[in-house]
Predict the structure of D-inositol-3-phosphate glycosyltransferase.
Amino acid sequence: MTELLEEELQGELRVGLSFQRHGTRADGIGVYTAALARALPNSRCKPTPCFYSSPGLVRRTAKTTSVSGSIAFPRSFHAQAAFSSLGWPLRTEGRIDVYHATDFHVVRMDCPVVATLHDAVPLKHPEWTSSRLRWLKNWQIRQAGRIADHVIAHARASIPDLVEFFGIEESKISVVPCGIDRHWLQPVETADAATVVSRFGLIPGYFLFVGTLQPRKNVARILAAYLTLPKSVRESCQLVIVGRAGWSCKSEVEAIRAAQAKGERVVWLESITGEKDLKAIYANAGVFVFPSLYEGFGIPVLEAFASGVPVITSNSSSLPEVSAGAAMEVDALSVDDLVAAMERLAEDQNSRNTCIALGRERALHLSWENTASLTAEVYRSVI
């Protein structure tokens, strides 16, 4: 019997993987979920996209249905969460062995549930999140930790926050780092790179930030540091900000526009959605600047490492764990620290070469295949 059980556990697992119908590459959760969907088959898992119905949509059947290889749940998430709070599980009709919620949307099910909790920002730093429906969202993410049979964090640094703010037992948490697609390690074609920089008016060697404009991303201090740099540095290096306007970023947008009006070489690209363009933008950067105030992981750091760009990042939250000594770490609250690091990596070739080499090594170490393999181990531990 034991041998049969072990054989079954080593066989292909049917994994329900949470997806949003409107999802795009724009956010970290979307990148993570799509990467798992691609890499899990190599770890003897068969991922099946799962969707909750749109709010207000009434189905004639209460059964879970499959559409084009995916599973469409019969109710909206919030409707099902209400049933879940009453102790009524969502029935998957035996179509999956385990469900993986990558987006905080967790309800009771008739199979084991694994939840990836990317960070504790809404609970630890409510000032960095929208107040609209905050109480409902906070209840939702607390429920995610309570209901899940096991929780995945991306970094050891996140564990104390998950224990404190989600009330999760540490024994229920496994650390599984994110990865980087191997194609990021391949050089960008010279012609493609030239086309992209020309289209967006970029001059290679710029300071680069990639991420949504929101308070915790610290864009205001990046801009302040850039404007404090010596004029000679600003004249030779643009500041390129890539990312859409997020919540509570009015002051950042106004500061960017004001700098542009004064003739400063600040470029804001709001609508880069194609990965090919983004990869070319990374490849032409001189320094990647990512002094976020709080990250559950920080995939852009790995993208910069893989692109051969020296990185400046924060010495707090998960970022030192992600960079593992391959980036120049600064106090994210100190504009002076940022200025010193930006000037050094713009002008000191030895420092640049060291960071580039260490970053490349770090990117080689962290792959999505490794992430999928460790995640599959978590799945098998709960069934």
